[in-house]
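Notes from the pairing session

We agreed to fold both candidates in a single pass and log them together. This is the raw record for the first candidate, unedited. Please don't reformat it; downstream parsing expects exactly this layout.

Candidate A
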Amino acid sequence: MLVVKKRFAVQQFRFETGVTLPVEIGYETYGTLNEDRSNAILICHYFSGTSHSGGSGYLEDPDERTAATLRPGWWESLIGPGKAFDTDRFFLISSDVICNLHPRNPYVVTTGPATIDPQTGEPYGMSFPQVTIRDFVQIQRQLLDFLGVETLYCAAGPSMGGMQALQWAVEYPERVRKVIAVITTGQTSAYTSVMPLQIGIDAIAQSPQSGLLLASKALTIQSDNKLADTVWRENASTSMPYQTAIEEAIRKNIVDADPLHWLYLARACQTFSLQQGFDSLQEALSRIQADVLLIPCDTDRLFPPEESRCLLEQLRKAGKNAEYYEFSSQRGHYAGVLEGEKIAEPIREYLLRS
């Protein structure tokens, strides 16, 4: 399944801080929107992800149908014909967030600190307004309006993507029927806010480029249990120190990343709470009309299963239809992205249920 990257621009996007700026994001679609526009699913990406959640590669020229590059989407195991997110049945929309981590990736369209400020001719840098998960949802809502999608059949995503999916249910309760929130939380804990997010923020503030490596290393070690353990075992008895080996593995994933974009995303995740803008979490949850499926991983250290269980209890206390499916993996947090096959069946069954 080859896809085309598209652009969506808002000339005066109003951030939650009150600042207005021109903003552009990229998006991809998979499948076909049905006649009554009732089969749309929004896929929200994780911290270091992009809008390329499905498909096997990009079309250089849609008319000629030639592939520019073969690059599988990060949830390709779940997205496609006959898969959990069945593109023969559903119309999927997947967009880049504002401040996407990879502004130098030619297949990412985003606006953030690395973007040139038209007023100065220089990158925005730290003058760019702080972003929130609610900002991500706001521009997604405008994208859906542009596409003519009034109601989502489902909003789904892992980690930071799950935050967005849950925020959709609170922010626009009448516009989403189902939510699938994978390896995520309803409010970022103090532990995750500090380790690894604040560690990364402090490192980047001191030295952007070397700080980006340290920040990414801290996040990866906390997120991918198997990678950290494997690199340790493979290098414990060799001349290559563990730190050097893990850094080599991480450098490959940040070649097109920007330090300030990492910092801005980290702050957005740090400040995330469904309660924001309401007097209590229960007031926020009371707005939800969607059915909710929570899918944690048993070895997740960033958002442990007990956070999903706590949210499940609070949703049910608020009288909401909420379900829970916990899966096992050695990979920890990243399992929700890297091992989609383990959660394919509960997602498929949940989506097919009326």
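Candidate B (folded immediately after A)
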Amino acid sequence: MTDPWTWHGGGLEAAKRHFGGSDWIDLSTGINPHPWPHATAMAFDWQHLPDARDLAQLESAAASCFGVDPRHVCAVPGTEIGLRLVGNLIGGPA
């Protein structure tokens, strides 16, 4: 699939640029415009999914931490899909 608007979640800033308007609400899974009240004290964002640029920055930081090339790092949404994909990549069960 090559249409950027057929996948689930995130990309809200890109959608605003493409379709216009500023009063969007992202209804993706895990998005809550009324977050847990203590979330503001934490160093991460509970209200938005990362855009492609954010993922690239995360993967670059992880690559630097682990001493590998950023092309060998892939951020995934949780652990199950990541483990299944690794199993496919290395030929073992996941």
